[in-house]
Amino acid sequence: MIPESFISDLLNRVDIVDVVGRYVQLKKTGANFQGLCPFHNEKSPSFTVSPTKQFYHCFGCSAHGTSIGFLMEYSGMGFVDAVKDLAQGVGMVVPEQDDKIPPAQRAQMQAQSMALSEAMNLAMEYYKTQLRSAPNAIAYLKGRGLTGEVAARFALGYAPDGWDNLRSVFPDYSAVALVEAGLVIDKVDEEGRHIKRYDRFRERVMFPIRNTKGQVIAFGGRIMEQGEPKYLNSPETPLFSKGSELYGLFEARQAIRDAGYVLVTEGYMDVVALAQMGFPHAVATLGTACTTIHVQKLLRQTDTVIFSFDGDKAGRRAARRALEACLPHVSDDKTIKFLFLPSEHDPDSYIREFGADGFEQQVSEAMPLSQFLLREAAGEHDLDEPEGRARAQYDAKPMLQAMAPSGLRLQIVRGLASMTQSTPGEIEALFELSKPVAVSRKAPARSKRQEPVGLERKMIRMLVTHPSLALQMDADALEACRHFGQEQYDHLLHLVQLAQSLGPNGTFAALAQQLKEQGDGYDAIIGEIAATPEPEIETERLFLAATVRELKLQQVRDEINIVMEAINTAITAKEPTDVLTTGYRELKALEDQLLREQEADKSFR
């Protein structure tokens, strides 16, 4: 858990113009910067970055957020990774409550990471240079239908024949970093003594693997002739984890947004060939099964994921593993499909034989996750027999249990019930599904919080725009806010406490980031603030004081009415009214004072 104080300090130190400017060409227009929105297609710029608010906003698609939010949306990073990336750029170290690593060891780890990154970059440049003078590798790539432009886009290279070619790149060929990066292999005897060192990759076309920040973290090498293994990947290293990375994701990010979906394949060549043929929104798993981490990364980039595996048995097994990885992340606003090609084809061979139109047709006919799950459950079982139907239910049970309650899960339950001659309620009860829908009574409608209006909305907008104003909200001011109602008061109190926790230097960006992490309840107001010029804080300060005074005046008048009723009741009952009358006079005096203050404030009459 990263402390909110650190997030606030970080957002005060980074400049969102610099952060966004790494990925979007910005042009200064008045107090702000403008550019083409990276989150939707547009020809005229509607994407605005405000250096004063430290916030971005698109008037076309309404995307908005802080520097942290931009990295999460654009690069597909998780929250922690985005914070760490920004912190590294301004020389800050992210504190983590469960981090027991001593500072000296942490510094050593950072130095090691930098050394490995530098080694990988040098190796990539070497392999790229070697490709230019390797006619056999160039002929191979041309034979696969690739142009120099696509090869350059993916930084393809070539590792020539020879045991120690990297010696020409690294003067210290014995450096530990070369082994740790997976570029070389140390051969040892049975007793663990070092015998010799040699390059891992030889006579292979090289595919650099980048992380979401564009850093080279590993390589994949493909043999050009017959031989095994066909693909050779870098080993697991401090930079590279196969279960967490996807080949081509860095290069495909913008194309994925443009297309509205991502294609997931099994091999490097599938990705490159599809890009060559007009499908630049493809990525590939790295010689391992699709994992839940892969699925999370993909769903950060787009709401629609289509898995396109080879048509053979191995491809179908990979599709089943991908299905299982997807189930915990299935939701009603996400679409996941599976494309099954003929058994003799992979995406690369299919698109070369049938062209882009033929492959596009296959994509459009991809099988929805729900249909694939039911097909997997049915398997080869005889659904005309009770035993076959029971076995189908048995096979479906772990898959449905892996899904969170949702409308889609309910639809699959209904499909399985129909297929196995059961009812949806029986399936949910038999599988012990969490929060069953079909068998539960409909809960009474919960009262939604009313959208803030009038003075309440004005106060919220002022406090979100300038969080430091919350410091002038004392106990009396907060008490006056009870006039809005208990639920509204509770929400406003929470907002004031969040804003006050940021201190006198609290910013709109820092508070907006916190509110975003807690849900989308303030998203509309944040969007409005991001889309309009920022008001002067002194003007807002005076307006807030006037608003609080208005609330206090309403509160006092409500109390006067209550006391007047009590006095009338006492007079009717012939009871003493001295105490009530004294209270009435005090309230009237307070009302007069507030009215005089209101009269004196000519700006807010």
Please tag this protein with its features.
605 residues; 5 domains; 24 helices; 16 strands; DNA Primase, Chain A; single chain; alpha+beta; 5-stranded mixed β-sheet; 5-stranded antiparallel β-sheet; DNA primase DNAg catalytic core, N-terminal domain; Dna Topoisomerase Vi A Subunit, Chain: A, domain 2
The main sheet comes to: 5 strands, antiparallel
Q: What is the alpha-carbon Rg in Å?
A: 32 Å
Q: What structural category characterises the helix and strand content? A: alpha+beta
Overall pLDDT:
87
Structure in words:
This protein is α+β, with helices and mostly antiparallel strands and 605 residues long. It folds into five domains: 4-89, Zinc finger, CHC2-typedomain (DNA Primase, Chain A); 103-233, DNA primase, catalytic core, N-terminal domain (DNA primase DNAg catalytic core, N-terminal domain, Alpha-Beta Complex), CATH 3.90.980.10; 249-365, 3-Layer(aba) Sandwich (Dna Topoisomerase Vi A Subunit, Chain: A, domain 2), CATH 3.40.1360.10; 374-431, Pheromone ER-1; 454-604, no CATH class. 51% of the residues lie in helices and 12% in strands. It has helices at 4-13, 16-21, 67-75, 79-89, 103-132, 135-143, 148-153, 176-180, 249-259, 268-276, 292-301, 313-326, 347-364, 369-378, 386-401, 407-419, 424-431, 454-465, 475-480, 486-501, 508-517, 523-531, 537-572, 578-600; strands at 27-29, 32-35, 47-50, 55-58, 64-65, 157-159, 184-188, 194-199, 204-210, 216-223, 231-233, 262-265, 282-284, 304-309, 335-340, 367-368. β10 (216-223) and β11 form a beta hairpin. α14 crosses α15 (386-401). The protein is globular, with a radius of gyration of 32 Å. The protein starts with a helix and ends in a 5-residue tail after the last helix.
